[in-house]
């Protein structure tokens, strides 16, 4: 230990700083809230009785299995959406690939409330599709009923995690890997299953485990679809009930965290001991394959079907924002621009807040994510794995718990130099809370990217006289750029539509981000159109920012010769 | 070696015909009118500097590229419409492209599995192939746990285990150390003989090409410069490029003109004049190898019937079997090899010397 | 905190204490330049009031903080140590009860005149004086015209209509644990019909539920979209949806409660003067008239305002059928508040599917039974109904301090006296109820199916 510090004082310092940050803004606030799960209500002492209660309650056991089931099925469905899109656009010369990749991120920017309404309008029991099916075929498909609805909405919403991470991994595979398999007689689906997918496993597992985690812990979707026999909504309902302070809500939160850690650990085990570093030549050999016209035709059909499906919520959202009244009909009764006009006057502050908060949060996340990934994968510091676990555990903490925890921990902390401003209600607290909540996304993406960078590339730089910092800056980060971008985009885009925690911490309307604005609108009948319009605005702005950062990184990579012009 | 399973080519080996191939990537014309006939069972090399299009030509044969004009025939069959996985040509990639997520054994078994070999047959064949390359005991390792040479052998085993009609090797030795390279190229040659497998070997190293191949195609800027056996290419280079690329050559530019009833070459500066028996006239260059020259300190009696050139030793290199002198003759630097024997003291730099050249060994080539 | 600030704080606190002791009217404070309102109301409601108030009191900026009721309560609780909010403005009386019991509200007696003591049978103001009613709202049934037309459903008029087989899988309601006003509706029926019968009515209606929503606005949202046809909602949701143009309508059943919508001053509010002024503005003629706006549509508490109301606007002070049918026992409601919510969740919200399946089977058996005489089948159906109606606890137990005590324990605070023993843990109790109900629902379904088989 001592010798480690002496050998790498810089690494150690970075690790200590990050640990302190996580302790202050994640561990302490959460512990402030969840210790209740272990407290005996009568004596105030430590007890595990509450956990016994959890497992002896039929409703909780049922909720537990429902959550597992929904998580697993969502991963399957999300994979079915993401894999063709990622494969076609990453491994082949696919016209419009960039656009597809870009559009593929949009589902993540599904504003709460309006997103659910839009899905209902399209897929609900009396949504557009079922109304059409009933009229022409006399059938009604329960897309949105019960757990089905949760699975559909979750996989449409979260499949971009797989798309982004898998694409980044696929793009890093040396073409010779595929060609040597083709040369040995392998092609088509077998090639994908036996060579391409296994090589992209770090990316796929990163994406899939994120999807599982998010679905497992997501309370927004089940709540909006009024499905409550799942764990996260059960936790929420118990924590947020007025006047009741049942410890079970916190017990469930603890269980959510434990399951989240376990699934991450499983993902880690699945990848352990295997070798995936396939970028060996630092950029060469990554050229894309060409499809035959007939293959291209079918690929396009598949891509179009998937894109229509996953963009359905946004199509619905657009119609909500442009429609006058849309009720029990295939399309809105008429179209209007009034809703956009209605939001025009107050949008700017919501907009700038959203972009500011989520860009800062995304920035903090990729910096922390890269640093943590590097410490975990490339150093021998004691306890580095724990850093990863702690950072990742944020994925499992309900936003509400963070919100309450922040108020409880920081309300009495005054911001220096700002007279009487409490840290908890300062907008910076929202940014940090967002960054903490989204750190897991960025961290997974950065880890996957770093896993794929062969250590020998770094060693050769060090061998040429570059010190650790220089190596990271000049070799590792440029090679990881794709993964870092993926991390930034996911953190940024999803932070932009975070609601649960925001609702707790916003103390001034002027500090509110878009999700808050949408919430404010969506609590009244007249607000549905303007709320949807605000939602569309959010999608456009976040989408545009995402696109710009894509273009920027792409340019840089080309300039650095990391990518061939094709 | 496992005696029960015999890895051999498909009955009789097949040839590869390349006819009038032109291939461009966008606006870069990479292969220009390539015509080649590779005979069945031949060990054939593509030799040329980096970037000349060797890999591209190899990938064309394997089916990874398609050409704008011309055709590729494998065993008299036009393969233009065949995707890579139906061509039955085995390719060993320059980077080896071993799949890191599979063990050595699984890597080697892959092609057999794809060809739907019965399980019972795959095992012995994989063992035989690994045995052939001497890696049987490393079968359960992962590629990252192997050295470069071992990886190269796995890549080779993975390819030959499926008994392809044609074996394509893309700079297979370039990632190995010098000693291993020499050992591996012999092994390759032996293996090829044993399997009597039509083999195309891509390299930028003329020594590698010379030592392994039956015939060599020298390629430069997407154009075939000359095809022939290593000795033909060395002794009768078709142009200056080939002369320079194969072995070490002294090249002097000048003019050939009629002189009496014979022909005479005279360098542009007049420092070198050589009588030639048969040559094209006009501006030409002459080429001769370092071992074609003999060297003597000035003032010693000249041998009979040789052209004499006076110069000064400017540099000396000891190469073991020979001492290579660089001698300044007028503005030219000529290389001269002198066989080395124990006890012989080489001439020092600055020594005035006479060089003698046998006119018969001088090659004249157009500029 | 800096030392001087601390001193200042003590001074303020002292002043407030003195003021409290002297019971000086809060209005005696000067008018501040800012007012922070925490509210669960939508923009449609807060916007006009903010605008009118600011116009009337230039120089005072109203800062509106929209939060879910539960988040608003948590926010005020968590920020109590350095409170920055002046007013809590929301419908749910229970939210105010919680804040009051936590000692987070300041007493305020409004000066406005002409406001009666009760609206319907519910007191307008908190009898203890901590919160003030400014409007009333009544529960009723909202439906989607297109939906009922397409599915050929009759228009309902009474709560009991919703239990009819024709409405199976067409009804939505929000959980009382999530919405204080819904809670009052549940409680009203329980008080009106009695514990056993009241719950039976709710379970019979719940057998037709398509959905129990987690937000009170989820119900009008579902009806507006046409996801389900009918919803049990508070009147302004129905009226404002209709005003927005949705093809929906609303009706008050004869037995309805009128629920006051409230406002209260938060304890140690930074701007008490402005806060008091805002309450007075709400109760003024001008403020009350704003409630008639079709997008707001609350029932004013000042009867005089109804003179200005558009035709067809219900007037609870004239039409005694609205909200007057039940004598509402506030004490009883308060004593079992959390228990009723939890019971509803355990028996209905979380077991909606099982309950609906049993209800469907019973409805089918009853339809098959009508016109036939089959004593055995009739007996089975009756038993099935009884199983559905069966309650895990009696009314006496429900108000016994022992039981509700389970639901009011604050886990964050150590129990003051170790001698105050909590008999059981909430999870334990709920699990008992759950297994009781689940078994009954399954048995009821089996019996009804058996009856149906007998009738075939
Ligand atoms: N996919 C490609 N796109 C564009 N240019 C290429 C591509 N592949 C090879 N080239 C170019 O073709 C030329 C020949 O390349 P290659 O066949 O790889 O040369 P080598 O003889 O070194 O193997 C080079 O100039 C190279 O830059
Ligand atoms: Mg090459």
Compact summary:
The complex is a heterotrimer of chains A (566), B (367) and C (456). Chain A is mainly α and 566 residues long.
**CATH architecture annotation name of the domain at 15-136 and 260-308 in chain C:** 3-Layer(aba) Sandwich
At the fourth CATH level, what is the homologous superfamily of the domain at 15-136 and 260-308 in chain C?
Periplasmic binding protein-like II
Distance between the termini of chain B: 54 Å
Distinct ligands, ions and cofactors found in the model? adenosine-5'-diphosphate, magnesium ion
Oligomeric state as shown? heterotrimer
Number of contiguous helices of chain B: 8
- CATH superfamily (homologous) name of the largest domain in chain B: P-loop containing nucleotide triphosphate hydrolases
Mean pLDDT figure of chain B: 89
Which chain pair has the greatest contact? A-C, 73 and 92 residues
Features:
heterotrimer, A: 566 residues, mainly alpha, MetI-like fold, 72% helix, C: 456 residues, alpha/beta, D-Maltodextrin-Binding Protein, domain 2, 18 helices, 13 strands, globular, binds adenosine-5'-diphosphate, binds magnesium ion
Topology at a glance:
The complex is a heterotrimer of chains A (566), B (367) and C (456).
Chain A: H1 2-7, H2 9-34, H3 49-56, H4 58-91, H5 97-105, H6 114-123, H7 128-136, H8 146-171, H9 175-183, H10 188-199, H11 201-217, H12 220-224, H13 231-240, H14 248-271, H15 293-322, H16 338-344, H17 347-378, H18 384-393, H19 399-410, H20 427-452, H21 455-463, H22 468-495, H23 500-505, H24 514-521, H25 528-559
Chain B: E1 16-25, E2 28-38, E3 43-47, H1 54-62, E4 69-74, E5 77-78, E6 89-92, H2 104-114, H3 119-132, H4 148-160, E7 166-170, H5 178-195, E8 198-203, H6 206-212, E9 215-220, E10 223-228, H7 230-235, H8 240-245, E11 250-259, E12 262-267, E13 273-276, E14 282-288, E15 293-297, E16 307-318, E17 322-329, E18 332-339, E19 352-357, E20 363-366
Parallel strand pairs in B: 3-8, 3-9, 6-7, 7-8
Antiparallel strand pairs in B: 1-2, 1-4, 4-5, 9-10, 11-12, 11-14, 12-13, 14-20, 15-19, 16-17, 16-19, 17-18
Chain C: H1 3-22, E1 34-39, H2 43-56, E2 61-66, H3 69-78, E3 87-90, H4 93-101, E4 105-106, E5 118-119, E6 122-123, E7 132-144, H5 145-150, E8 171-174, H6 180-193, H7 195-206, E9 209-213, H8 218-225, E10 230-234, H9 235-244, E11 248-251, E12 258-266, H10 272-283, H11 285-290, E13 299-300, H12 330-335, H13 337-349, H14 352-369, H15 375-389, H16 395-399, H17 402-408, H18 426-455
Parallel strand pairs in C: 1-2, 1-3, 8-9, 8-10
Antiparallel strand pairs in C: 3-12, 4-12, 5-6, 7-10, 7-11, 7-12, 7-13
The complex binds adenosine-5'-diphosphate and magnesium ion.
Residues 54-55, 171 of chain B line the site of magnesium ion.
């Amino acid at each position: 230990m001592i010798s480690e510090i002496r050998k790498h004082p810089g690494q150690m310092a970075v690790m200590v700083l990050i640990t302190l940050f996580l302790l202050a803004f994640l561990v302490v606030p959460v512990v402030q809230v969840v210790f209740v799960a272990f407290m005996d209500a009568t004596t105030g002492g430590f007890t595990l009785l509450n956990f016994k209660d959890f497992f002896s309650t039929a409703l909780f056991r049922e909720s537990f299995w429902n959550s597992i089931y929904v998580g697993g099925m969502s991963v399957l469905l999300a994979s079915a959406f993401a894999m063709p899109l990622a494969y076609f656009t990453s491994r082949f010369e696919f016209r419009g690939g960039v656009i597809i990749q870009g559009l593929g991120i949009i589902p993540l920017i599904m504003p709460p409330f309006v997103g659910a309404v839009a899905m209902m309008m399209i897929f609900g029991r009396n949504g557009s599709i079922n109304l059409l099916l009933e009229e022409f075929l006399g059938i009604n498909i329960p897309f949105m009923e019960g757990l089905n609805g949760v699975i559909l909405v979750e996989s449409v919403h979260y499949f971009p995690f797989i798309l982004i991470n898998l694409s980044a991994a696929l793009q890093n595979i040396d073409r010779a890997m595929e060609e040597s398999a083709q040369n040995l007689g392998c092609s088509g689906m077998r090639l994908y299953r036996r060579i391409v997918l296994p090589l992209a496993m770090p990316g796929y597992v990163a994406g899939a485990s994120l999807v599982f985690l998010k679905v497992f812990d997501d309370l927004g979707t089940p709540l909006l679809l009024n499905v409550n026999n799942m764990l996260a909504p059960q936790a929420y309902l118990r924590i947020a009930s007025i006047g009741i302070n049942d410890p079970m809500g916190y017990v469930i939160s603890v269980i959510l965290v434990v399951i989240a850690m376990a699934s991450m650990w499983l993902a880690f085990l699945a990848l352990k001991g295997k070798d995936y570093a396939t970028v060996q030549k630092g950029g060469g050999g990554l050229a894309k394959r060409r499809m035959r016209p007939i293959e291209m035709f079918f690929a396009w059909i598949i891509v179009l079907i998937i894109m229509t499906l996953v963009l359905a919520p946004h199509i619905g959202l657009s119609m909500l924002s442009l429609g006058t009244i849309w009720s029990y009909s295939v399309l809105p009764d008429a179209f209007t621009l009034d809703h956009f006009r209605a939001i025009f006057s107050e949008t700017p502050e919501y907009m700038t807040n959203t972009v500011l908060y989520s860009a800062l949060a995304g920035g903090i996340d990729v910096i922390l994510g890269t640093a943590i990934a590097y410490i975990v994968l490339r150093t021998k510091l004691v306890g580095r794995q724990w850093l990863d676990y702690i950072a990742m555990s944020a994925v499992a903490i309900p936003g509400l718990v963070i919100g309450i925890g922040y108020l409880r921990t920081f309300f009495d902390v005054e911001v220096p130099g700002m007279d009487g401003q409490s840290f908890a209600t300062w907008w910076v607290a929202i940014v940090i809370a967002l960054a903490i909540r989204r750190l897991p996304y960025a961290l997974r993406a950065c880890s996957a990217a770093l896993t794929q960078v062969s250590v020998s590339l770094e060693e050769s730089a060090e061998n040429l006289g570059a010190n650790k910092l220089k190596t990271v800056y000049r070799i590792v980060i440029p090679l990881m750029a794709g993964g870092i971008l993926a991390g930034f985009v996911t953190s940024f885009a999803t932070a932009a539509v975070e609601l649960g925690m925001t609702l707790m911490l916003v103390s001034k309307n002027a500090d509110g981000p878009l999700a808050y604005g949408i919430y404010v609108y969506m609590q009244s009948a007249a607000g549905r159109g303007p709320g949807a319009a605000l939602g569309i605005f959010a999608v456009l702005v976040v989408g545009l920012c995402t696109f710009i950062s894509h273009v920027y990184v792409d340019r840089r990579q080309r300039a650095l010769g990391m990518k061939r012009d094709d | 070696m496992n005696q029960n399973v015999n890895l051999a080519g498909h009955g009789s080996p097949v040839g590869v015909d390349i006819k009038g191939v032109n291939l461009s990537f966008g606006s870069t014309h990479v292969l220009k009118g390539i015509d080649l006939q590779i005979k069945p069972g031949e060990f054939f090399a593509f030799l040329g500097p980096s970037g000349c299009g060797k890999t591209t030509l190899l990938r064309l044969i394997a089916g990874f590229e398609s050409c704008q004009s011309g055709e590729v025939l494998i065993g008299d069959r036009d393969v233009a419409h065949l995707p890579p996985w139906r061509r039955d040509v085995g390719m060993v990639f320059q980077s080896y492209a071993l799949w890191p997520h599979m063990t050595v054994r699984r890597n080697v078994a892959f092609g057999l599995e794809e060809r739907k070999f019965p399980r019972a047959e795959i095992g012995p064949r994989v063992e035989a192939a690994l045995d052939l390359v001497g890696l049987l005991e490393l079968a359960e390792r992962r590629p990252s746990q192997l050295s470069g040479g071992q990886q190269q052998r796995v890549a080779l085993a993975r390819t030959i285990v499926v008994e392809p009609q044609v074996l394509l090797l893309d700079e297979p030795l370039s990632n190995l150390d010098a000693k291993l390279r020499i050992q591996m190229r012999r092994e390759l040659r032996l293996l090829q003989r044993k399997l009597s497998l039509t083999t195309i070997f891509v390299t930028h190293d003329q020594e590698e090409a010379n030592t392994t191949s039956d015939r060599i195609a020298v390629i430069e800027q997407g154009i075939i410069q000359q095809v022939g056996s290593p000795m033909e290419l060395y002794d009768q280079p078709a142009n200056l490029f080939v002369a320079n690329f194969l072995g070490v050559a002294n090249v002097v530019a000048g003019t050939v003109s009629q002189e009496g009833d014979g022909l005479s070459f005279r360098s542009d500066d007049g420092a070198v004049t050589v009588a030639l028996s048969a040559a094209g006239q006009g501006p030409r260059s002459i080429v001769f190898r370092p071992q074609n020259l003999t060297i003597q300190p000035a003032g010693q009696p000249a041998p009979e019937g040789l052209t004499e050139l006076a110069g000064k030793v400017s540099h000396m290199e000891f190469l073991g079997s020979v001492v290579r002198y660089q001698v300044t003759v007028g503005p030219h630097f000529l290389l001269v090899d002198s066989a080395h024997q124990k006890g012989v003291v080489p001439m020092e730099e600055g020594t005035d010397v006479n060089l003698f050249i046998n006119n018969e060994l001088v090659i004249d080539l157009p500029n | 905190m800096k030392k001087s600030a601390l001193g200042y704080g003590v001074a303020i606190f002292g002043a407030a204490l003195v003021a409290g002791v002297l019971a000086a009217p809060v209005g005696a404070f000067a008018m501040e330049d800012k007012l922070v309102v925490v509210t669960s109301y939508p923009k449609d409601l807060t916007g006009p009031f903010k605008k009118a108030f600011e116009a009337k009191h230039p120089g005072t900026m109203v800062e509106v903080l929209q939060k879910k009721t539960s988040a608003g309560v948590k926010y005020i609780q968590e920020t109590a140590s350095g409170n920055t909010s002046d007013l809590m403005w929301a419908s749910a009386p229970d939210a105010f009860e919680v804040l009051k019991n936590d000692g987070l509200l300041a007493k305020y007696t409004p000066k406005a005149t002409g406001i009666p003591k009760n609206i319907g049978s519910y007191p307008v103001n908190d009898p203890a004086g901590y919160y003030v009613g400014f409007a009333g709202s009544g529960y009723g049934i909202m439906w989607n015209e297109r939906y009922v037309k397409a599915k050929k459903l009759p228009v309902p008029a009474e709560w009991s209509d919703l239990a009819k087989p024709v409405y199976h899988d067409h009804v939505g309601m929000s959980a009382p644990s999530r919405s204080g006003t819904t809670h009052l509706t549940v409680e009203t029926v329980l008080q009106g019909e009695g514990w056993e019968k009241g719950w039976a009515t709710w379970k019979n209606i719940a057998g037709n539920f398509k959905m129990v929503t987690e937000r009170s606005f989820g119900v009008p949202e579902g009806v507006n979209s046409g996801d389900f046809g009918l919803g049990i909602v508070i009147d302004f949701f129905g009226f404002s949806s209709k005003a927005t143009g949705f093809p929906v309508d609303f009706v008050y059943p004869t037995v309805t409660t009128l629920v006051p919508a409230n406002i209260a001053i938060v304890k140690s509010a930074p701007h008490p003067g402005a806060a008091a002024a805002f309450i007075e503005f709400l109760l003024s003629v001008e403020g009350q008239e704003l409630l008639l706006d079709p997008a707001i549509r609350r029932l004013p508490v000042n009867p005089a305002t109804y003179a200005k109301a558009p035709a067809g606007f219900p007037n609870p002070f004239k039409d005694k059928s609205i909200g007057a049918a039940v004598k509402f026992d506030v004490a009883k409601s308060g004593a079992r508040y959390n228990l009723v919510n939890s019971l509803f969740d355990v028996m209905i919200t979380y077991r909606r599917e099982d309950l609906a399946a049993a209800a469907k089977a019973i409805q089918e058996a009853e339809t098959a039974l009508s016109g036939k005489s089959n004593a055995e089948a009739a007996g089975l159906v009756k038993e099935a109904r009884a199983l559905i109606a069966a309650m895990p606890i009696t009314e006496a137990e429900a108000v016994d301090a022992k039981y509700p005590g389970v639901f009011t324990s604050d886990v964050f605070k150590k129990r003051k006296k170790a001698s105050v023993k909590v008999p059981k843990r909430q999870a334990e109790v709920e699990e008992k109820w759950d297994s009781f109900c689940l078994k009954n629902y399954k048995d009821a379904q089996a019996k009804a199916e058996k009856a149906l088989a007998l009738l075939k």
